[in-house]
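We include the pair:
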Amino acid sequence: MKKKVVIGMSGGVDSSVAAALLKEKGYEVIGVYMNLYSGKEQENKEIICYGQKEENLKIAKTTAEILNIPLFVVDVEGEFKKKVIDYFIKEYKEGKTPNPCVMCNRYIKFGILLEKLKKSDINFDYFSTGHYAKVKYNGKRYIIQKGKDKEKDQSYFLFLLTQKQLSKVIFPLGDFKKTEVREIARKYKFPSYERDESQDFISGTPSFFDNEKEIEIVDKRGNVLGKNKGIFYYTIGQRRGLGIAKGMPLYVIGIDAKKKGIIVGEKKDVYKRCLIAGNINFVSVDKLKYGMKVKGKIRYKSPLSTAYVFPYKNDKIIVRFEKEQWAITPGQAVVLYKGSTLLFGGIIEKGVSDEEITLYIKK
């Protein structure tokens, strides 16, 4: 009997081609479209994961018809709001800059979505997406590896997946480049083959931040330089939109959520070498006993940089980069690699200087 694979179809070119490749390999393919949101957010185009629902669903249905596969629509709006949107709001109000995509992958796309399918008596052997990444079993653990396309590799967004989740995952695009994927889409005459890349999670200023109040912008010494529009509008390393002048370029170097203050400094103040991260998820190794040399990145578009990672108290880690990093930002993910293999990652809690890290270690 053919193995059954459920594939998440968003209406984008990547998931469309992934579905085609699975069918070419002889799998019985079942498409599923996640209904993430409706109502005010959809009408105001505030939250645009995958773009607008009606347009994307129409394209997903057309693609499923071309491939002659079924397509189910699963409503995860309530769970998406609780696990992703509410998390996003909470993190911002704490002065952090969250990465909602990693949470959506862990809890919604590779979690709640599949649970709902099983409850609907839709049986399957594997789950698939259009991510540019690879999953392999090394005899002990399921490991995540970077995709062939270095520019499109999306392993970074998958670091929170569990061993149980990875044991049932297939990533058909891991050995393809984006140009090859678009060519396959063109041959199949998929309506998505010329579509732009997916847009960001948030577009404009969502209404749930309407009540943000003006608060102080201060320098490192606490001197008040002006007022800001609310902490949602700022992130570490930001220069534009501060609305203040001091005879030199100023950058956001800290966000004090308790006092609702934005701390600014010079460009050199944005660079730090060390960070502390929590919420660690071990993927290709089961734990970190000792310090080790790795390659790491502090955001998706950051280049990999040589670093040393050490275990820290309360199941946290300390990462010290050989070279100073621009804008280490609380709430973002630090993901660590050995060669092409993703080892583990966590959520950044604080960027610290060399001097500060010595004090942290002593504590």
